[in-house]
Amino acid sequence: MTRGHLGAALVALCLTFAAVHPRAQAPQMAGSLEAAKQLYASAAYDDALAMLTALPTDTLDAGQLASVHHYRMLCLLALGRTADIDAVVAALLDADPGFRLDETGTAPRVVKVFVEARQRVVPQVARRRYEVARRHYARRDFAAAAADFRVVRTLLDDPAQPSAPDSPLAEMAQLAADFEEVSRVAVEQQVRAERERAAARAAAAAREAERAAAATAAAVPAPPPAAPAPAPAPPDGIYGPLDRGVVAPLVVDQELRRWIGPMPPPTAGAPLGTVEVVIDEQGAVIAARIAASINGFYDAVLLDSARTWRYRPATKDGRPVRFRRLVSLLAR
Predict the structure, then answer these.
(1) Residue 86, domain extent
(2) Do residues 124 and 52 share a domain?
(3) What is the 3-state secondary structure (H, E, C) of 57-102?
(4) How many CB atoms lie within 10 A of CB 310?
(5) Hey, which residues does 237 pair with through a beta bridge?
(6) Alpha-carbon span 149 to 144, nearest angstrom
(7) CATH code at 257?
(8) Would 196 be classed as within a structural domain?
(9) What's the rounded Cα separation, in Å, for the pair 183 and 171?
(10) Do 277 and 150 lie in a common domain?
(11) Distance of alpha carbon 37 from alpha carbon 20, whole angstroms
């Protein structure tokens, strides 16, 4: 082979290599998560990281966003840029607070770097989400507040996260759990209130439609009204305030019993919490739970008392039925 032929062959070989090498293809590949994963698998870490960083994250769902930050972390680790990993792990936990690496299929070095970075960034991520949750709570957006308080609990509920029982993080986890429960109860109350308003609007619209129909057909004798269909019984057989045709139970005995535990009785007028009770056909309380807690010691007194309360049972069509109600109490 002559020198000229050898040079031409080398040029052709280089062009063929460029046609199949991922780095040469990168500019033509569509910017996507899957394309970035292919670049990473081909050890084109710089190209993969650039593509992941340029992705429009506002079009991704939470799972895709977590995957983007996961691969950004892997690229940074492969490139030796460990100083940038904390920020990426923080973004990953913002997208998926419960994210864990599959330790059986991941190199121990990668697991170690992720676990150590997670321990460093969890406090700041948890505090940021806690403040967001408190703002939602202050605006009475209880559904969003409950979701964010649940994120804080997920972030801090990790045996590998160092936290003494009396540390600020442990206190934040307990506060997040308390606020999540109160927010959940508030959401239930909002839903009930909205159902009542919707029922009132529907009833008002029905009355207006009846008046309009009566005015239109004033000269025509109206046929006898059809008997309304009976309201279906609830699936669990327990009625509530929103069920039609049900007469609510009447209080016979709803007093607080003796105080127990080391706490003194609260001052008169102080809120003690809310109890949800289920009253059977004989007027006895057969189930009780704390729906909104003020204090753990109060909870014990409320539950102990609620199980002894007596009522004149609720009725439907003159027949005693089971009934669920919320009882909010103040100290006397």
Answers:
(1) 18-182
(2) yes
(3) HHHCCHHHHHHHHHHHHHHHHHCCCHHHHHHHHHHHHHHCCCCCCC
(4) 16
(5) none
(6) 9
(7) 3.30.2420
(8) no
(9) 18
(10) no
(11) 17
Using an 8 Å Cβ cutoff, are 302 and 290 in contact? yes
**Chain-centre distance of CA 19, in angstroms?**
48
Cα–Cα nearest to 240, from 191, 183, 299, 307:
191
Closest CA relative to residue 86, chosen from 40, 119, 53, 50: 119
Residue 148, CA atoms < 13 Å, CB-side half-sphere? 18
CA distances from 65 to 71, 72, 93, 264 (A): 10, 11, 10, 51
pLDDT, one tens digit per residue, over 48-64 is 899 998 888 788 888 88
* Mean pLDDT (whole number) for 126-150: 89
Residue 243 contacts residue 290 (beta carbons within 8 Å): no
**What are the angstrom distances between the C-alpha of 208 and each of 47, 186, 222, 229, 236?**
67, 33, 17, 21, 35
How many Cα atoms within 13 Å fall on the side-chain side of residue 17?
6
Structure tokens at 79: 């490139």
Integer Cα distance of 74 and 224 in angstroms: 76
Q: Is residue 151 part of a domain?
A: yes
List, in sequence order, every beta strand (DSSP E) within the chain.
238-239, 246-247, 250-253, 271-279, 285-293, 310-312, 314-316, 319-330
Positive/negative CA dihedral, 121, 127, 131, 137: positive
Half-sphere exposure (CA, 13 Å, Cβ side) for 150?
12
Would you place residue 304 in the very low, low, confident or very high pLDDT band (cuts 50, 70, 90)?
A: confident
Instruction: Give the pLDDT score at 228.
Output: 64
